[in-house]
Amino acid sequence: MYPGSRMGAWRRRMIMLSLCLTIFLAALDVTIVSTALPTISSSLHATAAEYAWVGSAYTLASTSMAPIWAKISDITGRKSALIAANVAFMAGSTVCALAPTAAVLVGGRVLQGLGSGGMFIIVTIVIGDLFELKDRAKYYGLTALVWAVAGAVGPVMGGAFTQTVGWQWCFWINLPFDAISLVMLAFFLKLDTRKIDVREALKTLDWVGSFVIVGGTICFLYGLETGASGAQAGYSWSSPLVIALMVVGIALLCFFCFYEARVAKNPLMPPAIFASRANIAVFVMLGAHSFGIIAYSYFLPLYFQTVLGFSPVISGVSSFPFIIPMTFATYFAGQFVGRTGNFQIPIWFSVITMTLGSGLLINLGAEVNWAKIVCYQIVLGLGAGALFQVPMIALQSQLEPKLISPAMSALNFLKNLGTSCSMVVGTVLIQSGLRGSGGGLTTHGAGGQATPDGFEEAYTGALQKMWIFYTCVCTLGIMSAFFLPKENIKGKRDGRQAPAEEQPSETRSSSEMQDGLVGEKQQDKSGDSDGKGQALEEVAVADLGQAVTLTDVEKKREGV
Q1: Given this model, what pLDDT does residue 5 score?
Q2: One of this protein's Pfam families, by short name (predicted)?
Q3: Nearest Cα to Cα of residue 425 among 317, 546, 239, 299
Q4: Phi, psi of 88, rounded to the nearest 5 degrees
Q5: Counting Cβ atoms within 10 Å, is residue 469 exposed (0-12), middle (13-18) or buried (19+)?
Q6: pLDDT for the residue numbered 559
Q7: What is each CA distance from 428 to 34, 242, 243, 471, 502, in whole angstroms?
């Protein structure tokens, strides 16, 4: 029995509220600065490079640190790691709000990203630790719903703060709500609280893998950002700096894969999580979903502002036909999987509908057509919703408990990497389309500003070519769906078949008993006077997801 099954409804709700609040704040800071950036740049006299880094520094730090946070949470315990990540995020928010220069603001965004990387991944792992497989879909659905809402309201909030109380409130707003989340986590989340030897803990970290993946990710994404910035940053795709960054980044990421597979003793991403076609299919599906979802969230508002002339606030509101159906689809898909154990139906519905919705966007023109704007976004949102969490359940159903944490870490890393790459690829496709039609990104206006004659048509044509590309990406989800596992997850528990009814724990397999005894022996060596309670804790750590009673420990000691 999982901890979530034993706790009361009130405590379970408080835990989920704190986790959802954590996700909301981390997701909000991805988009809240988008509409505030021009004002921030003017206020702090930012250069073109600093302007670009205010947005990308957060994503770079968050993406590169996620696998390391997952490993830290394995060593120190989920609660301690999650609290530390929240504290880092709050510290970064404070630095950003008080920043006197653009350089300090970028530093604060890096610190925010370091914290948000842990917030995203540890919340995912905590839900896996707390709840049974069949129940996780609805809880992952809640966090995905919160993520979608944060992405939708972020630009609106950023524009509203900028026009009223000041851009600093894009960061001040995090502090009171993150403080509430921290207090709730401290009081209600009761997971493993481990007594650790710092030296031993440091030895178990994959230091080489950590440095390589951080360095490779930063080089690769910085190369993409610099190349995409073009003349604004003073570089082009053919410049030596961009080429060097891309080559070094790809080389380091390839070396990371080799090192994790062949050399690392405690790898950040064990090769076993990629051992089957079904597992790889989930990674491909979620990678394609993340690649597409950020494009719809970012480039649709850009279309509303640049082509249709909407203000930032109206542009955010115009995205609601996409966001609201997506949140409903996310919630009901989780409920469906939780009740039936069938994840095939929502996945097939989603990959087909999302591809259809992406294809419909190709038909958006340079004139305001509310029927198309609303209907196309509804189809797209209904398709995108279920893919936030249901494929994760399909992956977890194939894994042993000890592999779930690194698998979620790898999945989160891939999704963040796809998100970062997608924004760059989409921008490059638009720039290419505008050059082909004689336009240019630097010549346009938004929110009703004057633009050259014919620019809206040229920009619409560039967007249509981009939507064709993203529709092709969506077809990867359809192809990968053929390789997903076919079984029903009702009655399964993390890749192992659970009994029809909860059996006494002494009926566990001999291998599980062996794991428990190993935990006891380790605890006995530590000299802890409270042998019974600590032995129980070690058994729980050695065999995640299994309920163990004090009687079990005594029986094993007596040789039963």
Answers
A1: 65
A2: MFS_1
A3: 299
A4: -60, -40
A5: middle
A6: 42
A7: 18, 14, 16, 17, 55
Q: What 3-state DSSP class applies to 275?
A: coil
| Coil vs helix vs strand at 186 | helix
Report the DSSP pairing between strands 492-493 and 496-497.
Answer: antiparallel
User: Residues for the chain: how many in total?
Assistant: 560
Longest dimension (CA), the chain: 87
> What is the pLDDT at residue 516?
40
Spans of the chain below 70 pLDDT: 1-5, 48-49, 52, 192-202, 204, 228-235, 312, 436-453, 488-560
Closest CA to 33 of 52, 14, 15, 47: 52
Residue pair 282/484 in contact by the 8 Å Cβ criterion: yes
Q: Rounded to an integer, what distance in angstroms lies between the CA atom of residue 136 and that of residue 451?
A: 49
SS3 state of residue 196: coil
Q: 397 Cβ partners below 8 Å, 6+ apart?
A: 133, 485, 487, 489, 492, 494, 495
Whether residue 120 contacts residue 412, with contact meaning beta carbons closer than 8 Å, is answered with yes
Cα–Cα distance, 539 to 405 (Å, whole number) = 18
Q: Is residue 331 within 8 Å of residue 451, measured between CB atoms? A: no
pLDDT of residue 153: 80
Q: How many Cβ atoms from other residues are within 10 Å of residue 193's Cβ?
A: 11
SS3 category, 249? helix
CA-CA distances (angstroms) from residue 45 to 101, 235, 382?
8, 21, 42
CA distances from 270 to 157, 279, 537 (A): 40, 13, 25
CA distance 506 to 555: 8
